[in-house]
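Budget justification aside, the reviewers requested a transparent look at the raw inputs and outputs of the sequence design task funded under Objective 1. We therefore reproduce one unedited record. The lines immediately below are the structure tokens for a 268-residue chain.
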């Protein structure tokens, strides 16, 4: 529960309100995370916030952070050499090996591309273990697309199908326009032999999961990553409760069959 000091070794401005930090341990490192887990990042003197792990390479943690409040604003203001606190990892992770031998469909909306980034990294590192691999990415506008250089690199590969769409665009945009769920119907996968990994705003995930099911993907092969207001990260405070679940402990990665009824309840 005590944050360990980590040093910012790299900072990149991705969007006007979003940065990616690479963090290395100052002393003892936290345990290595699984893809899909999250850490609690502590801005000293301000507070801490749950941030998904966007990558882990040779002991260096990668976190993509959007500025939405005091804590994330302080984290986003970090520069090379600054220290922040880190506890974790917490929660459940993506079970990519469950898709071994079959096709993989990854659907990401907005900042949801960050938590699924490790899926793509692991999938490409073990490409021979899987069939067709498809990444569908949606954003509000072209200026809101994360990891543009990586997206271009992935799109240039012959072993990964990448489709990108935006909700609204200027005449200069040459890609698809519309919600990301519209891309699912033409994704080149064998539905009966596909595992779908979905992450993004809750309403997007609900519609994306339904679109995947309509394609014929078994409900037991649809996996989501939930986002809730996590505070303690161990299921004690109740901030992230969703029905009988505590997202910080029982999630964030969950099967569609476990949360379908909960996500279909309209919130006031």
């Amino acid at each position: 529960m005590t944050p360990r000091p980590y040093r910012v070794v790299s900072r990149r401005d991705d969007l006007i309100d979003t940065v990616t930090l690479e963090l290395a341990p100052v002393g003892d490192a936290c345990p290595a995370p699984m893809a899909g887990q999250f850490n609690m990042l502590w801005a000293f003197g301000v507070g801490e916030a749950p941030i998904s792990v966007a990558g882990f390479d040779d002991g260096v943690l990668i976190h993509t952070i959007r500025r939405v409040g005091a804590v994330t604003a302080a984290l986003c203001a970090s520069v090379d050499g600054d220290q922040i606190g880190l506890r974790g990892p917490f929660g459940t992770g993506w079970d990519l090996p469950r898709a071994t031998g079959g096709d993989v469909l990854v659907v990401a909306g907005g900042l949801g591309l960050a938590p699924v980034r490790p899926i793509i990294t692991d999938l490409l590192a073990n490409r021979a273990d899987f069939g067709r691999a498809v990444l569908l990415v949606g954003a509000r506008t072209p200026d809101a697309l994360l990891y543009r250089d990586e997206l271009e690199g992935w799109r240039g590969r012959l072993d990964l199908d990448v489709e990108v769409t935006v909700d609204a665009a200027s005449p200069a945009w040459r890609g698809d326009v519309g919600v990301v769920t519209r891309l699912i119907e033409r994704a080149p996968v064998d539905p009966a032999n596909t595992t779908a990994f979905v992450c993004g705003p809750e309403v997007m995930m609900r519609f994306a999961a339904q679109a995947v099911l309509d394609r014929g993907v078994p409900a037991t092969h649809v996996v989501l990553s939930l986002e809730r207001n996590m505070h303690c990260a161990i299921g004690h405070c109740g901030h992230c409760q969703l029905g009988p679940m505590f997202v910080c402990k029982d999630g964030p990665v969950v099967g569609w069959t476990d949360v379908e009824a909960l996500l279909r309840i309209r919130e006031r």
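The chain has a mean pLDDT of 94. The longest strand covers residues 4-15. Computational costs for records of this kind are itemized in the attached budget.
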